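Memo to structure team: turn this sequence into structure tokens by end of day. - J.P.
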Amino acid sequence: MKPRILVVDAHDAGREELAGLLSDRGYRVVTAKGPEEMLDLAVVTAPEVVMVDDGFLHGHWQMLSHIRHRLPSALILVLLTYGDAGQLELASRAGANGFVLKSACSAELVTVIEGKLSEVGRKGGVEGSNQSSPLGQPLDREERR
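Reply from structure team:
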């Protein structure tokens, strides 16, 4: 069975687009649009992957730390608008395992998710892994498909 993924985005269109893409690929998807809903769903559904939109995180980076504390073995990926070093550092310090640029096409998004899940599976989970730098690499696409 494919992992459960919690998709967190304050914008309905972005959240539903990503949820639809992942559902179509067989993932079990739950969605949240606010910080309280994200924390509640993280505890109730115990997703293996949490994907959080960086726009949601502005001023709320500590939310990743809360998720990391509650779900120490979850893979946390941040969807970035821009791959600037400041955002990457904030995401890493808050507990993110990697990132994906929002401009990536759908096939690349799925490839990154599956690659990160494979890495985590080989390492026996993310607990104790080096959280000091993101594991992901930005994807270089002009448009999302």
